[in-house]
Amino acid sequence: MSMLREAPIGVFDSGIGGLTVAREIMRQIPQERIVYFGDTARLPYGSKSRNTIIRYSRQIVRFLRTRQVKAIVVACNTASAYALDTLQQESDIPIIGVVKPGARMAAEESPGGNIGVIGTAGTVGSHIYRDYICSLRPDAQVFEKACPLFVPLVEEGWRKDPVTETVARRYLEEMIERKVDTLILGCTHYPLLRSTVRGIMGEKVILVNPAYETAIELKELLKRENIENQGHNKTDENPYEFFVSDEAERFRAFADSILPVDITAARQIQIEEY
In angstroms, what CA-CA distances link 180 with 134, 143, 158, 175? Predict the structure, then answer.
């Protein structure tokens, strides 16, 4: 049990967006080790088919299992929507996604049940947020909007660029017209655009970051399964490992800019081999 407690958490995403989830895990459960994989060679996932997302996700889970992870967080909304159920059925370790924690928070916190969801085309097309929110709160009105340009803009490092604000204003027009009182940032890249979204939506709209809620759920899961790291024997000089399928140095530089720790390296692997 001691070795299992000290095993790392596996976290994966299509690219850098899942770093927002890793960041919350580092903040909320600092004693836990993390193995992160970003599928930078094959992003974005939002435009891929369900079968392709499941195939990619299976490969990544197989890779993470070689790192002896004790649990896995699918830190990608599209993969959570399309592949999570399959991965959970095939796995003997806990696997959680980012959709349900965020949807649950929105359903609980929305003052009037007027909830907006922005995400990739895949996530929005799956209606997974709408369906889960309405199962928890049948009176909710859920408005969904695909924002496919957000991911490439973030990946290009254009978070503060005027072009990004122009695109965001166009995407969010409908949410403003619908007078949503709560907006789910339904892609793990989107919290990196939080200040832009906040400026457009105004201070009164509740912005739900599923990354934050997912870290809370992970903490509860580890405690429930009795596999949380007690932190007593954590002697790693670097308890965080990062792997990508392409552009390792670019990923490392970006990770350094948003994580609360210094990233010494990100290793590139051939994920298709798994």
Answer: 15, 8, 26, 6
Judge if 62 and 132 occupy the same domain. no
Contact 252, 266 (CB under 8 A): yes
Contact 63, 243 (CB under 8 A): yes
- From the list 55, 67, 19, the residue with the least C-alpha distance to 40 is 19
Does 206 share its domain with 70? no
Asked if residue 77 lies in contact with residue 210, where contact means CB atoms within 8 angstroms, the answer is yes
CA distance linking residue 249 with residue 264, whole number of Å: 10
Instruction: Write out the catalytic residue numbers.
Output: 76, 187
Q: What is the CATH number of the domain that holds 63?
A: 3.40.50.1860
pLDDT tens digits for 114-133? 999 999 999 999 999 999 99
Neighbour-count burial of 243, counting CB atoms closer than 10 A to its CB (0-12 exposed, 13-18 middle, 19+ buried): buried
Asked whether the beta carbons of 165 and 137 are under 8 A apart, the reply is no
pTM of the model: 0.93
Report how far residue 94's alpha carbon sits from residue 69's, in angstroms, rounded to the nearest whole number.
10
Q: Which helix (H) or strand (E) holds 206?
A: strand 206-208
DSSP 191: G
Query: Is residue 3 very low, low, confident or very high in pLDDT (cuts 50, 70, 90)?
Result: confident
Q: What is the residue range of 224's domain?
A: 2-97+212-273
Alpha carbon distance 195, 201 (integer Å): 10
| Residue 112 backbone dihedrals phi, psi, to 5 degrees | -120, 5
pLDDT at 263 over 90: no
The count of other CB atoms within 10 Å of the CB of residue 169 is 13
pLDDT at 235: 55
Amino acid (one-letter) located at 181 = D
pLDDT given for residue 242 in this prediction: 97
